[in-house]
From TrEMBL:
The lineage of its organism: Eukaryota, Viridiplantae, Streptophyta, Embryophyta, Tracheophyta. A divalent metal cation 1 binds at residues 7, 9, 93, 206. A divalent metal cation 2 binds at residues 131, 156. GO terms for molecular function: hydrolase activity, acting on ester bonds; metal ion binding. InterPro entries: Metal_Hydrolase, TatD-like. It comes from the Eukaryota. Keywords: Metal-binding. It holds the Pfam family TatD_DNase. This is TatD related DNase.
Length: 284
């Protein structure tokens, strides 16, 4: 099976030092590609360095809503500069958040920053990876106002309703599923998954977060000795090889063979990330 981790954060300080080993482990398990998403001005350069070093990494640059308050006055010019220097990059992670963490950040600023980056994605004709927590009604309205998005919108770790899927699909959305899916009620998750067109399904890990609650004995957490001293060593950190666990759960709910879900999601990701100038297009 070929697998494509459609959204992860190998540059995260909790795992960046051991990323080379985690990448090797994932590749040995069949993960062919990784979409690595930057979240703030502090890590865009690390994502770029990783993408320059590893052909398997598709870089994305964006300002995540959790870091909106920390942005510099020149953040947007800096972001645009990364796309000039890295013409094969996608856009992300960007979005809006009304969850417990998001409530601490001014929402009007989140929306303003989100819309500017959506405009940039449209201008660059690149896919964009979107974070949305408890704000799917607002997200749909924003995408309607600014869309459609023919280059694609990746709704990463999607946990919205089945009812919203058709409208979001019409606007160019893809639906990416991570271990967070296991926190939904199974019947609700199953209904939602079955509402997603097959050509819009993606799978991801969101590593180092997003560790699944399904079939926990099959998970391989990042070893505690690999977690930096300043981090919480009691935490179980995720990594891309655990995408097999996500695949197993999604396949179970869809009542489809794992091999079919793996290939469908892989082909969807390849199509999405084969935009002009991308690593995939240059290799193709």
């Amino acid at each position: 099976m070929r697998l494509f981790d459609a959204h992860c954060h190998l540059q995260d300080p909790r795992i960046a030092a051991v990323a080379p080993r985690l990448i090797r482990t994932a590749i040995d398990s069949g993960v062919v590609r990784f979409s690595v998403n930057g979240v703030s001005e502090k890590d865009w350069h690390v994502v770029k360095q990783m993408s320059d070093q590893y052909p398997s990494i598709i870089p994305s640059f964006g300002l995540h809503p959790w870091y909106v308050a920390e942005r510099s006055p020149d953040w947007f010019d800096t972001l645009r500069g990364f796309f000039v220097d890295t013409p094969y990059a996608a856009v992300g992670e960007i979005g809006i958040d009304k969850g417990s963490h998001g409530k601490t950040i001014e929402y009007t600023e989140q929306v303003e920053v989100f819309q500017r980056q959506l405009e940039l994605a449209k201008e660059l004709q690149r896919p964009v990876s979107v974070h949305c927590v408890r704000a799917f009604g607002d997200l749909l309205e924003i995408l309607k106002q600014m869309g459609p998005f023919p280059a694609g919108v990746i709704l990463h770790s999607y946990m919205g309703s089945a009812e919203m899927v058709p409208e979001l699909s019409e606007l160019g959305s893809y639906f990416s599923f991570s271990g967070f899916l296991t926190s939904m009620k199974e019947q609700k998750a199953k209904k939602m998954l079955k509402s997603v067109p097959k050509d819009r399904i993606l799978i991801e890990t969101d590593a180092p977060d997003g560790l699944s609650n399904f079939n926990k004995e099959s998970l391989i957490p990042v070893p505690r000795e690999d977690i930096p001293d300043e981090e919480d060593k009691s935490a179980f950190l995720n990594h891309p090889a655990n995408i097999h666990n996500v695949l197993e759960y999604v396949s179970l709910l869809l009542e489809m063979p794992k091999e079919e879900v793996a290939e469908v999601s892989y082909q969807n990701a390849v199509r999405l990330f084969s935009y002009p100038g991308s690593k995939l297009q240059s290799e193709g």
